[in-house]
Amino acid sequence: MLETKDILKIGDLAKIELDQQDMEKVTAKINEILHLVDTIQELDLDHVEPMIHPNPLQNVFRDDQPQAAAELQPLLANVPEVQDEQIKVPTVLKA
Amino acid sequence: MLDRSIRELHQAIKNQEVTPSQLVNESYEKISQHDKVLNSFVTLNEERAHAQAKSLDEQPAKHVLHGIPVGIKDNIITKDLRTTCGSKMLADFNPVYNATVIEKLVAAGAVPVGKLNMDEFAMGSSNETSYFGVVRNPWNTDYVPGGSSGGSAAAVAAGLVPVALGSDTGGSVRQPAALTGIVGMKPTYGRISRYGLVAFASSFDQIGIFSRTIEDNALVLEAIAGLDPMDNTSSPLPVEDYTAKIKKPVSGMRVGVPAEYMSDIVTPEVRAAVEQAIEIYRSLGVTVEEVHMPHLKYVVPAYYIIAPSEASSNLSRFDGMRFGHRSSEATDIESIFRKSRAEGFGDEVKRRILIGTYCLSAGHFDSYYMKALKLRTVVKEDFDAIFKEFDAIIGPTTTAPAFKIGENKEKTIDMYMNDILTIPANLVGLPAMSIPAGFSSDGLPIGLQLTGKHFDEATLYQLGHAFEQVTDYHTKRPTL
To answer: Domains in chain B, start-ordered, CATH in brackets?
Structure first.
């Protein structure tokens, strides 16, 4: 069983600010889901190879080909804050 | 006109009985009549669709999809046409390129009329997690259309468009197709390029097709399947001529029915519909025998480890920096991430990111994520054993018909368990399709699921088409 402090730590790892007021409900839901997925622990799969992907994949190579890059303006149009064609963010380095 | 099959529409265009513009106009008329209630579309593409149709009016109809209106699930990106994934995070996002499937559809002459509502980031089985509101089932608007491609299913079932694209990560094409009484195909993983499909769980995600008939479905698959240099997981295998094969007799085929799919996890009405389908196949000369899926009990747990794990990684790109929602409360870089994600994602998406982050974290990786990957191998072996002796597997698509809006909203586990019959195909990457197979006593559709060998969509279409020829479920329409 995870406790509220565990969920807050996971929220930190996932970079999602969690609402302190909802924590009881969120914790209960997460525990409910973990209880469901824990069913898998009944199985002994120690000698089974994991399947990472449904298709047997190999590296796919091709020659480099020059192509037109995406246009700047449509890309910038999706940026939340722009200044002088740059993405604007709060100050990173403090004086 | 739009009630006709794609082939009939194509013939009508060639005979100059109708123009692409008229078809597109009809689609928008139907949308304006019915979609206030259904809420299947999030964004319409009216101006460009009319312009495209007008240009198609002047050209010879070379491709069968020439002038056919199509709907697109809102997690398939469309250049300069808002693509939201049903999320506040992307409520104002305008992609700068088209997904490969869009390029292929437009090249064939199909006309995208708009973007279809969905559960947020495709996480849900009822379309109730969309930031843009719940979609209603055309058969009874108090009921959900299923999810996550609920908008695609409702729009096709209501006849707003003849065909639509969706995506299927754990059943998100087949389950809503079943709940709205239409055909929903999830092809083999790698059959259709995922380039431009917003990633949820990359080793499961596959674009799929909604239609009213098998042949319409196969025509769209022929147009959009194939190798794509932009998706290294797309398959180099040649795309088959599915429509040429569907009319072949099914007599002599062997089909397995997993006993576990017919247990009391499904309602008596659903079981009865599948039993009737079994008898129909037998009458067509198909051998139907009981088989076993011994690890069915574990597929939902494995899915709810792997899918959230992959999602927690894929959705880390939504950080409020270069695109998507940015919190106005943020004061530094760290708080841009934390607050933008808190505000931009809905509860279900956050929950899955938290679960995935936990399953991948130090100390839990082996006991959750690796163990679930091992279960995939075990389930593959179960399927391989069946496919040694059988051409396909049939059973119910869902455990029950559609449920009422709001009924399961707080019952997370019940909602997750809904996907138990569709998840196996995603774990292993197999093609699977839902077809209309009956109605419940209160008039809600029931779906039959057919699962095939890797890259054997042709057999599924063949079996589906044979069923369609001797039943009339696919001809029934909801009263709107």
So the answer is: 6-252 (3.90.1300.10)
